[in-house]
Amino acid sequence: MAEANAGGTAVGQGSTASTFTVLVADDNEVAQRLCKRVLEKAGYGVLIAADGLQAVDIAMSQRPAMILMDVAMPGIDGLEAMRRIKEQIPTMPIVIASAHSMASDRERFLAAGADNVLSKPFRLADLIAIVAKLASAT
Amino acid sequence: MALAAIFAIQALADAQPVVAFPLYLTVVLLVSLQQNRVESIAVAFVAAVAVLVIPLASAGQASDVAPAVLLAAVLVGVAVAMSELARHAREAAIDTQSRLAELAASERRLRATVESAEVGLGLADLDGRLLQVNEPLAALLGRSRDALAQTTLIEVTAEEDRDALKDALGMLRNGDVTRWQADINQVCADGTLVPVAVFISKLPNTATGEPTLLIQARDTSASRRSDAQREGAAAVRQVMVTSAGLDQALPQVLAALCAYLGWDAGQFWSVDADRQAMRVRYAWNASGAVVEGFLHASRSLVVVNGAGLIGRVWQSGVLAGDADLEHSADFGRVEATRSAGLRSAVAFPVVDGGEVIGVVELVAERARTLQDDEVTMLATAGVELGQFIRRSDTAQALRRSEADHRAIFERSPFGIARISSGGELLEANPAFLQMLEHDEETMRTIAWPDLLHAYDQAASRQHKAPFLAGITDGSSVHARAATGAGNWLWLQLTATSIPDSSGRPEHVLLMIEDVTAVRETADKLAEALEAQRDANTNLEKLDRTKSEFLSIVSHEFRTALTGIQGFSELIRDGGLEPDEVRAYGGYIFSDADRVNRLIGDMLDLDRMESGRMTMRSAEVDINEVLTEAVSRAVPSATAVEFKSDLDPRLPIVAGDRDRLIQVVSNLVNNAVKYSPEGGTVTVTTRVEGRYALVSVTDTGIGIPAEEIAHVFERFRRVRSGAAQSIPGTGLGLTIVKQIVEMHGGKIWVESAVGHGSSFHFTIPLAPEGAESLQQLRHG
């Protein structure tokens, strides 16, 4: 975890003000690495949070352009983290990326305030498209 | 005149006085007999002068005169004597004559008395032959006096009384008795019987020496009729007083009327409820089969108001009779009447409150006229009968009601008891006694007080008033009661106060129902429902668990597949450094491995739970298993310290070594996973009774109390959200528990948040352990 955090911070430090930065909140290290690798390759900045509380902290302190949020995380889950973040920064775009990928889950996440939903496992192009779409909107 | 004639003869013939003297004597004698004394003496004197005249006048010879004087004197003397005699005789004759007249008058008076007597009087000889009868006796016997003169008393007596009369005559004849009296029936010439009180006395006849019988007979039919009416009326009243109801009374009333008043059959016609017609309701046949046809015809007859004898009486409300049925035009049932030979009928109304409610009809085979007293008696009977019918209708309704209630009490399948306001059992019905298997006495003295106590206790529990608290409102309590045979019953007791007229509870009516079966059924039903609910809950839980399981499993798989799919896509697209490819291949491998483990755990669990997993049974050293498991964990758990406290005396157990290593490894890995850096994981073994007790203790984060009960549920880790960063399938502890239980052991956990957790499990020592290591089926 410490390692992941350090990695995220390093990436964030490396980004510029103009860089579209994505906070990836996921407790699964493989998922963290995958998203980081793909998004950075596509030119986005990547911040990593390993659980819900971290996600809220980083969202507040670093103000990423958007958040890619897992749901099943220790501590507070992604939905709770999203609620807290949206409470502070209502305009923060949050995409729920969850392995809970039944149709009902999608509805549930959108109802909870998600701006978009990405089901795991995902095609790399879908991840890039979702982020790109939000990036172009800003 | 005679003297003159004699004198003339004497003078003409100039006869001698001696010659004339007999003549004169004769005349004088005759006159003396005929005439009174003076006249006869006068005649005698004249005759004497005449006797003297001739001799004196003719020569006056002394010889002639002397005989003449003598003769004259004789004449006078004879005349005197004769007249004296005649006078006596005359006086005697007059006396006799007056006596005879007196006697004749006396006889006339007697005769008049006899003739005008009310009673029949007669004389008969000792054989009973009638010598003389008076008119009343002749009338009584229905014959003329002349006809009677040739008959005996026996002949005019009814057959059944003849022997008695013969005996009586015999006794009178022999002098055994001088008087005899009896009530017998005499037979009139037309054959009708007349009840007679007869009195016979033997009269001595001094003149002839042959005694006669004086017969006195009195017609008692009127007094008998009045006696019969009085007795009949009394009998009718008696019937009304003693009868239980109309059905019993009316036939008896009809029978009494027939018997006492001499009718052959009687019928009671009652007015229908709608007052449109009358029908025969009761009949009495006092006579025989002959009348049966008439009664039958009557039964099928419906009489309307005003029609026929019955209808007329109904309409008029007064008694009516037909003395001559054979010629009665308006009397229905003519044919039946004729064939029954009925000649008289009377019908009188049965009246209640001025309304005719029925008609009593009496019929007789003989022609009979109704006397006024009988009419009065029947009319009175009609009124009394009417009152009786009303009373008995009311009484019958009451009795029926009472009988109905009694029947309910006696035959009710529910127990019914009457309890005094003092709490004593007054009455218990058979169902109650049977229910509690007591006789009335033990029920009263033993069972009821117990039941009353049980009632009050039950009432108290159910927040109801005690039994004798006052007016009870008919609410029920359930109480337990023991029967005489010692069985326990559940009784439903329903108490209702029966207040007296002032509203105070007079007694309590208690209904007792055996609800044991109901209670037991209800209990069973409740159990079944509970079981069903549990089953439903389990099913729902199972269903939920299944959905959750699917959701969780798919989540786990998809999480693992995310890395596999994503990195393999990266590799496929190329353009990677060899280091990157190697690293991504490692991620792919570890996730694929995780998927594989997940599948393996799921299959293991499924096989264990379905009982399809077989364990190998071999000698296992638990201490050695622990050492092996720890040594496997150590390399990847550098941040924790391991401690072992293994009991060297721990015997070898029977078990599946690989599975036991799986159990211990799982527990040790968990302990490591949840331990903070620098934590301690301690493994201990010891003998605990007939079990080997194994404990794995960590100093980790602990398990919240509410989670303790669920730690062995599959995927609990994932659901709880706790320690999710720690990789695992979420099935480990579930599998562990299965394996321990398949060895016949138990597993449990003690934990305190912030202080760590201890997982303990037992494995039975051999041989029990070996036995339990069969192909266990886990429910």
Concise description?
The complex is a heterodimer of chains A (138) and B (779). Chain A is built from 6 helices and 5 strands.
Description of the structure:
Chain A has a single domain (2-12, 20-137), classed as Response regulator (Rossmann fold, 3-Layer(aba) Sandwich). Helix content of chain A is 51%, strand content 17%. Chain A contains six helices and five strands, in the order αβαβαβαβαβα. In chain A, helix 4 (78-88) links the parallel strand 3 (66-69) and strand 4. In chain A, helix 3 packs parallel to helix 4. The longest helix of chain A has 14 residues, at 124-137. Residues 1-16 of chain A have low confidence and may be disordered. Chain B has 779 residues and is of the alpha+beta class. Chain B has five domains: 2-96; 117-219, 2-Layer Sandwich (Beta-Lactamase); 227-399, Beta-Lactamase, CATH 3.30.450.40; 412-520, 2-Layer Sandwich (Beta-Lactamase), CATH 3.30.450; 597-772, Histidine kinase-like ATPase, C-terminal domain (Heat Shock Protein 90, 2-Layer Sandwich). A five-stranded antiparallel sheet of chain B has the order 2-1-5-4-3, sandwiched between helices. Chain B is rod-shaped and about 255 Å long. At the A-B interface, helix 2 of A face helix 16 and helix 17 of B.
Task: State the total count of DSSP E strands of chain B.
Answer: 22
Which chain pair shows the most residues in contact?
Answer: A-B, 27 and 26 residues
What is the CATH class designation of the largest domain in chain B? Alpha Beta
Oligomer: heterodimer
Q: What is the C-alpha radius of gyration of chain A, as a whole number of Å?
A: 13 Å
Q: Helicity range of the residues of chain B? A: 40-55%
**CATH homologous superfamily descriptor of chain A:** Response regulator
- What's the rounded overall pLDDT mean of chain B? 82
Total E-strand runs of chain A: 5
Q: Give the overall shape of chain B.
A: rod-shaped
Order of helices and strands of chain A: HEHEHEHEHEH
Helix fraction of chain A by DSSP (H/I, runs of at least 4): 40-55%
Q: Strand order, biggest sheet of chain B?
A: 2-1-5-4-3
Distance between the termini of chain A: 31 Å
